[in-house]
Amino acid sequence: MSRSLGSTDLKRLHRDWRRRAPGRVALLLDSVATPYNVGSILRTAAAMRVDDVWICGQTAHETHASTQKTALGSQRFLVFHHADEPSVGLAAAQAAGYRVVGIELAEQAEPIHQVDLSGSVCLAVGHEDRGLSSALLQDADALAFIPQLGRIASLNVATATSIALYEVRRQGWPSD
User: Fold this and answer.
1) Distance between CA 133 and CA 96 in Å, rounded?
2) Which pTM value belongs to this model?
């Protein structure tokens, strides 16, 4: 009979998976305006061991009350960088050794499971309605999209970020 794991068992389980997760992962939030979306993204980022987060453009800050409400304190596990212009954040992420992959339904974007997400990768996600800024669309190292099967054309930015972060980590895990 199966049971839910207790806190000690969860710590062991997560410690084992942390050891299997190579590579550095970062996020660049390009004018993600809704604080609740930002908070949800930050909580997932902390759960997936994101190393750096660039808050760019009109993105709600990690200190915003509504962001904090959704993030539930996960901000303390993340390193934040701020840039007024998304292009400055992009350049900073690249200078820090990250390959920037824009997550966007755009021309030239490849299905995310076909994009090499190994090594040091920074996922860039954009505004809830407008998506990534033109600077990021032009200068990202790669563009990826999340294939969808239903009749809804796009995902909520926090949901899309969660799926993309999972795919980055999944690609790095051994297939034993």
Assistant:
1) 21
2) 0.91
CA 17 – CA 22 distance, rounded (Å): 10
d(CA 109, CA 40): 25
Residue 169: name the closest of 10, 18, 11 by CA. 18
Residue pair 101/113 in contact by the 8 Å Cβ criterion: no
Selection from 58, 49, 3 nearest residue 30 by Cα: 58
Are 151 and 168 in contact by the 8 Å Cβ rule? The answer is: no
- Separation CA 29–CA 81 (nearest Å): 10
Banded model confidence at residue 145, pLDDT cuts 50, 70, 90: very high
Query: In the sheet where 99-103 sits, what is the strand order?
Result: 79-83, 52-56, 25-30, 121-126, 99-103, 142-145, 110-111
Q: Please report the domains of the chain, with CATH numbers, ordered by start residue.
A: 24-172 (3.40.1280.10)
Question: Are 60 and 38 within 8 A, CB to CB?
Answer: yes
Geometric angle at alpha carbon 144, from 139 and 161, rounded to 5°: 100
Query: Mind listing the pLDDT tens digit for each residue in 108-130?
Result: 999 999 999 999 999 999 999 99
Q: Locate 23 and state its tokens.
A: 């590579």
